[in-house]
Amino acid sequence: MFYDHQQIEKKWQKYWEENQTYKTSNNTDKPKFYVLDMFPYPSGAGLHVGHPLGYIASDIYARYKRHQGFNVLHPVGYDSFGLPAEQYAIQTGQHPAITTEQNINRYEEQLRKIGFSFDWSREVRTSDASYYKWTQWIFIQLYHSWYNKNTDKAESIETLIKHFEEKGTEGLNANQNDELNFTSEEWKNASDLDKEDILLNYRLAYRAETTVNWCPALGTVLANDEVKDGKSERGGFPVFQKKMMQWSMRISAYSERLLQGLNTLDWPQPLKDSQEYWIGKSQGAQVQFQVEGHDEIVEVFTTRPDTIFGATFMVLAPENPLVETITTDAQKAEVDTYIEETSKKTERDRMSDVKNVSGAFTGSYAINPFSGEKMPIYISDYVLMGYGTGAVMAVPAHDERDHRFAKKFNLEIKKVVETEEDVQEKSFDSKDSVCVNSDFLNGLSYNDAKTKIIAEIETKGIGHGTTNYRQRDAIFSRQRYWGEPVPIYYKDGMPYTLPTSALPLELPEVEKYLPTEDGDPPLGNAKEFAWDEANQKVVATDLIDDKTIFPLELSTMPGWAGSSWYFLRYMDPNDEETFVKKELADYWGQVDLYIGGSEHATGHLLYSRFWNMFLKDRGYISHDEPFQKLINQGMILGMSAFVYRIDGTNQYVSKNLANQYQTQQIHVDVSLLKGTSDELDTEAFKAWRPDYADAEFILEDGKYITDREVEKMSKSKYNVVNPDDICEEYGADGLRLYEMFLGPLEQSKPWNTQGLSGVYGFLKKFWNLYFNGDVFEVSDEEPTKAEYKVLHTLIKKVVYDIENFSFNTSVSSFMIAVNELQKLKCNKRNILEPLAVIISPYAPHICEELWSLSGHDTSVEFEKFPALNEDYLIEDEIEYPVSVNGKMKFKISLSAQLSAKEVEDLVISNEKMQQILEGKTPKKIIVVPHRIVNIVI
User: What does the alpha-carbon distance between residue 306 and residue 284 come to, in Å, rounded to a whole number?
Assistant: First the structure.
């Protein structure tokens, strides 16, 4: 019977939509299972075949859990705020909302074609006001919270105010920007404005001057992961370090909890490692150094206080405020030039560039508090203001980077850890040796020396032992239009939150999406964007009088805001009273399976863990971590095609002749190749782009052969394969099976469209098991033991594979089972109906059709997954090879139930064995049950 995949898939996609087959209930006594894909950003290019890989895996697992009787939450939505739509708006004037809507419609059409079992009724979009109302609400809760180190959690700012009223800062143990000291009387006597200023020092969402990645061309601040080699990832525009007043999130308060929480998660180890490195916990000491001729002190954090006698110079971050104060007139020009150069590098570039050494001398000296020696103070880009104190004591004998710096600037290198190596030539960094040239530390091991020097530092009153974290607070404002407005207005220069009743604070209309002429963010172009405090509503901007009508915050939230809590909104996206009801959050709990790319390790995955912990602290939810199990899917790679253009001409030479010319390799669209070959359709190439219209070709054997290479699949490399085309030709079930069949989920693998024919052939064989010619024919006859064995072997394998996410080996097992059933000419209902259930998570359309043809009027989706009966796997007979003196002589079939002694007796009495023995008695008989018989004579 002809397998018409197009008609079948359209029919069942329509059925699922009309019957809301995958709509999930919140009211059920079933156990829950929450399966989630990382939030997609709806780009203009739509999906290519690489995108659905993780979605197919999560969909198989969701369908499998439904078969097991779970109430499965498997939602979909869109992380729909983003820079690409805004850049398009700047170029074309089209509102980002229109672009985003068009892109989402395209995504949804493609996703539906692949047959995903999403609960579409729960769809959320971060750019919908009904959604970002709650993102703004969470921001307000963060603003009105502080982190109490004594209780180790976030608390309402009211408890902090109460502490100030009763004790001032006495006994306060809080995460803060600066250490403040005041009495309860001083607090009570402070003006309202001063009180607000003090509270900003403690709030979890706060405003402070921060060094940021400023991109003038994009008119916005960029996150570290949006900058590459000093340029914006989008557009390649120059990026500079700049100090700006910015909103920040106090994620640093959660560093230890974020670190410890990793131990409870079933995540890939490399992902855990990258979060651990990003958080960067280190233990050491905070030490103060006097600056000669100045009142200022330089405070450093060091993990190796035991090497302080070897500290021969100091290095400050170029942006350290002390630099301006201590730089001498003679050194000012050199220092200023160096600071200007450093501003062009991002923090990430500075951290990763370990080979190049640069710096400038300030002209000033610090005094080593233990050796009493003068230490020249330099600035260098390898010291970061955000880590530690923005200053390091340099111990060149025992730190590789300090050593390179000392060699470049001819600074003293002093050995203080015992080693045979020549520290003048190479640094020696070890914790296994003892201290030398270190006065009272001489002869002490690392741990003993560290304990003793910290005690001395504390006795001298110049510092203390401490734990430090590399992780800095997360910048939370972007100077762009397409993002969530920050629900803040300014009164006397101080920020205040809007009342929650005023939410959502909606994005205003603007005439243009660029910063204003005064350099304000794009929201500064809005005509209706001011806060009327008396009437509690947004009014025209020209009414601002700073008496009753005040300016609103003009920055918007970063891209990660909406994705930091979306997994909670799916629990009830239509709730207008709260972001999620606690009883629903308690029912659905953590995401049980989260699938997405490893590139989100130190962005989205850290921020969402932070927000989740905060919401738990404040009593809104009960679970510590958002995502219990996480899998990073690999990448599907594209097979790029290249042509060779002869330099200075519009002539293109075929691949195997290219070495005879000076050429440039150019990507061409893979759709310009003939069929599945490497031959270029030269006429199509000439029509592709105007600059190729008059192209000339140097052919080999009358053909132009392109070069091919496996690369990341991307629009810029013209190697994208559209899943719509695959669904058209091979069906969505074919696409789903093939993507799983390519290899292990976590690995990257190259796409090859030719490979689909094998999977499509399997689907046709599977289909035809149920037909006799063109007639659907399934028999009610009882299956044979051989048929049951095929089925139950498959059940055992598929259950193991799905639960271990080995989806590729399941597809192989389907093929083996169908081939064996075809050989057995099996058409028994008791085999073929369970078979349709087993394969349905992978290929749902064809299985729905076969289930329906088998006489069922309900979806296959909620049928119980077939139970394994091990009895069918027990062998009745075993064919034993019989080996004599190490050589296999014959085989004998015996009952599988026989004991080793019974097998031995039957083999010895066998006619063939008697001929071999010729009356001799065997020296040794070894029976390996169900495997082999070895006889030595």
Answer: 9
Closest to 725 in 3D by CA, of 6, 2, 119: 6
Token representation of residue 756: 């689909």
3-state secondary structure of 186: helix
Residue 487 token pair: 């629900």
* CA atoms of 482 and 485, how far apart (whole Å): 9
Place of tokens 């050995």: 415
State yes or no: cis peptide before 318, omega within 30 of 0: no
Q: What is the pLDDT of residue 241?
A: 80
Per DSSP, the residues of 462-473 read SEEEEEEES--P
Between CA 272 and CA 632 the distance in angstroms is 12
Residues 719 and 721: their CA atoms lie apart, in Å, by 7
Q: Which of 515, 511, 310 is nearest to 392 (CA)?
A: 310
What is residue 170's DSSP assignment?
T
Contacts of residue 808, defined as CB under 8 A and 6 or more positions apart, other chains included, come to 740, 741, 742, 743, 744, 745
Can you name the residues that pair with 78 across neighbouring β-strands?
125
Exposure of 473 by Cβ count < 10 A (0-12 exposed, 13-18 middle, 19+ buried)? buried
Instruction: Give the other-Cβ count within 10 Å of 425's Cβ.
Output: 9
Residues 6+ apart with CB under 8 A from 848: 12, 15, 840, 859, 860, 861
With a cut of 90, say whether residue 236 has pLDDT above it.
no
Give the bridge partners for 641, in sequence order.
Answer: 668, 708
**Which residue in 834, 825, 843 sits closest to 791, CA to CA?**
834
Alpha-helix runs per DSSP H in 201-268:
255-261
Q: Are strands 775-776 and 391-394 parallel, antiparallel or unpaired?
A: unpaired
The per-residue b/e assignment along 863-893, b for 16 or more CB within 10 angstroms, e otherwise, is bebbebeeebeeeeebebebbbeeeeebebe
pLDDT in tens, 856-869: 999 999 999 999 99
Nearest to 323 by CA among 278, 345, 291, 347: 291
Query: What is the predicted pLDDT for the residue at 356?
Result: 85
Measured in degrees and rounded to the nearest 5, phi and psi for residue 368 equal -65, 120
Span 524-534, average pLDDT: 97
**Cβ count near 697 (within 10 Å):** 15
Residue 723 half-sphere exposure, CB side, CA atoms within 13 Å?
A: 28
Query: What is the DSSP-derived secondary structure letter of residue 515?
Result: P
**In this model, does residue 353 exceed pLDDT 80?**
no
> Alpha-carbon torsion 135, 141, 144, 145, what sign?
negative
Tokens for 217?
A: 């061309």
Phi-psi region of 505 (alpha: psi -120 to 50; beta: other; left: phi over 0): beta
Question: How far is 752 from 315, CA to CA, in rounded Å?
Answer: 54
CA distance 297 to 316: 12
Interatomic CA distance for residues 469 and 253, integer angstroms: 10
* Contact predicate 400/429, CB 8 Å: yes
Report, as an integer, the average pLDDT of 354-382.
95
For residue 349, the model assigns a pLDDT of: 77
pLDDT in tens, 398-446: 999 999 999 999 999 999 999 999 999 999 998 899 999 999 999 999 9
Query: What distance in Å separates the CA atoms of residue 818 and residue 832, rounded to the nearest whole number?
Result: 10
Q: Which two tokens stand for residue 57?
A: 């895996």
Q: Where are the alpha helices (DSSP H) in 301-433?
A: 322-326, 332-342, 347-352, 400-409
End-to-end CA distance of the chain: 60
Which pair of tokens denotes residue 776?
A: 């659907």
pTM > 0.85: yes or no: yes
- Nearest CA to 468 out of 657, 646, 289, 281 is that of 281
Radius of gyration of the chain (CA): 35
